């Protein structure tokens, strides 16, 4: 399926049929998510993958009872990482491992440190959330390209999810993406006309 078809055919699934997605396909999806862009290549996001039925059942009340949580094959919990000191150290090590020249590496690290140094903790979290949504886009279109369905979900209690899944601080769950096989049918795709998009 090409990208145009993925975009045209994707819709927010409200219920899945419960069939499991093969592990190899889940790994392929995560690889597509891993390759998502991020500003300064800091990649300030992590993903908890939940497939255990008991865990999904425990999470459902914290997602206001939405059926996608328990009927999906796998639930991707996208977490923003606002630890910029740690992110910058990780980026520096990644650049070094990949053979980036020291002068270039130092320039990138210094630029990232200056950028992070201007932000409050709240701004760091907000910036990490925005970068996490970029990765979500790869998950939504990637799932469709691999032959299954998905649904972006912001209706959940992040604090409860962190507690139930023992997600370590300072990671913060910011959006969910259940994936699986459709058990409902898409309605028409209702969007603003193209003429109303430009400002």
From TrEMBL:
It comes from the Archaea. Its EC number is 1.6.99.3. Keywords: Flavoprotein, FMN, NADP, Oxidoreductase. InterPro entries: NfsB-like (IPR033878), Nitroreductase (IPR029479), Nitroreductase-like (IPR000415). One of its GO terms (molecular function) is oxidoreductase activity. Its cofactor is FMN. Residues 9-181 form the Nitroreductase domain. It is an enzyme of class 1 (oxidoreductase). It holds the Pfam family Nitroreductase. Belongs to the nitroreductase family. PANTHER family: NAD(P)H NITROREDUCTASE YDGI-RELATED, NITROREDUCTASE. This is NADH dehydrogenase.
């Amino acid at each position: 399926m090409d990208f145009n078809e993925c975009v045209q055919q994707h819709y927010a699934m409200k219920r899945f049929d419960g069939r499991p997605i093969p592990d190899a396909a889940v790994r392929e999806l995560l690889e597509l998510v891993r390759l998502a862009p991020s500003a300064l290549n800091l990649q300030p996001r992590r993903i908890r993958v939940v497939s255990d039925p008991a865990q999904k059942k425990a999470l459902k009340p914290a997602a206001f009872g939405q059926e996608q949580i328990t009927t999906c094959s796998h639930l991707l919990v996208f977490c923003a990482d606002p630890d910029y000191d740690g992110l910058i150290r990780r980026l520096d090590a990644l650049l070094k491992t990949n053979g980036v020249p020291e002068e270039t590496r130092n320039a990138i690290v210094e630029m990232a440190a200056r950028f992070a140094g201007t932000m409050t903790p709240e701004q760091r979290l907000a910036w990490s959330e925005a970068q996490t949504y970029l990765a979500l886009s790869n998950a939504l279109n990637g799932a469709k390209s691999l032959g299954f369905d998905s649904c972006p979900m912001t209706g959940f209690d992040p604090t409860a999810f962190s507690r139930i899944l023992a997600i370590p601080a300072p990671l913060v769950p910011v959006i969910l993406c259940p994936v699986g096989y459709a058990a409902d049918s898409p309605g028409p795709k209702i969007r603003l006309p193209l003429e109303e998009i430009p400002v």
